[in-house]
Amino acid sequence: MVNTSRGYRAVFDVRExxxxxxxxxxxxxxxxxxxxxxxxxxxxxxxxxLMTALTFALGFLPYLIGGTLLSGVADRYPARRVLVxxxxxxxxxxxxxxxxxxxxxxxxxxxxxxxxxxxxFSGTRAATLGEVLGTGDLFVLxxxxxxxxxxxxxxxxxxxxxxxxxxxxxxxxxxxTVAGFLASALLLSLGTGRRPARTGQGGALLASSVSGLRQLxxxxxxxxxxxxxxxxxxxxxxxxxxxxxxxxxxxxGPVGLGLLLCGMPVGxxxxxxxxxxxxxxxxxxxxxxxxxxxxxxxxxxxxxRPPLGLALSAVALAGMGMAYTLGLDQWFVAAVPEELRxxxxxxxxxxxxxxxxxxxxxxGAAAEFVPVHDVVAGAGVLGTVAAGPVIRSxxxxxxSK
Length: 401
Fold this sequence. Notes:
Distance between the termini: 28 Å
CATH class of the largest domain: Mainly Alpha
Shape: globular
Radius of gyration: 21 Å
Helix content: over 70%
Number of strands: 0
Order of helices and strands: HHHHHHHHHHHHHHHHHHHH
Largest sheet: none
Strand content: under 5%
CATH architecture of the largest domain: Up-down Bundle
Structural class: mainly alpha
Number of helices: 20
């Protein structure tokens, strides 16, 4: 029996989780390096900032397709098979990106393919963690570790990718993405157990996906928890989306821009580590609603046109508020029936990525008409106000004891 009082260390006592964690780290580093290489490649081929930005946007928007129309895959096929096949498909499409004959249109299509597969993979992995770690505290800490390595790999991957592109071409750098996916597939194949599908394979995949989503969204408790997991990220991306123009107006240069972009992930890592290490299961559940209600308030500092240091502190403090997701994860997995767990995790992941993409787009659009600092401050106000009804719906949907 694993001692859950040992926090994150207890999760690594589970051998199977160590393989899942390692696979995630390898594939994620490859993905981040590939994103940088692809954006540079598209810009060199087209000379268009719009096309370059589109390569990043296409990493968000197809999540909605994969998270809805393909979500049934996560429950109707054995998890290990789904994870390995997803890795191999992404490796194949990334290899096609690296070919010299692949045109820009082909690069964008392949980017969409990988982005559509992403939520299926993430949802299946999250559901598998419930079988590997159970659905108690270890599951919460395991999901937290996956998020932590995602944030850390994003920071390290951008640095590695930038250095790599100083010595090799963008297409050669895309090979790192292929290697990451293949290494992930190998670890998952060798290190995870064979488990049966959670549901049968009767009926069409699309019908199964839509039916599962209808069942999930038809339950008030699940619907309320999904909204609470999506609302803060929608507003939290505003300062990141507008970091470049804000740094420019401050005269902070590339260094200031880099610091502003690092603020949110660094704050998120710190908040989750503290909540996961210092709080027990009940403590993490107690902070969910108050932290979710207040985490966007630091953005109000932007109304004062803060200097770089104060703006960075506000962004990092807001990022720390994402620690509310640890307790929320426990509520969510408890609310979802086992036969719908894969589809639920896929929907949650896809929704988070989609609202972040929409949030970035809307923040950018608003900044065309309103000063950047007012847009970020406005996101803090609107997000805090919008959190009220969502939190009330979560409270009302609590199961009676």
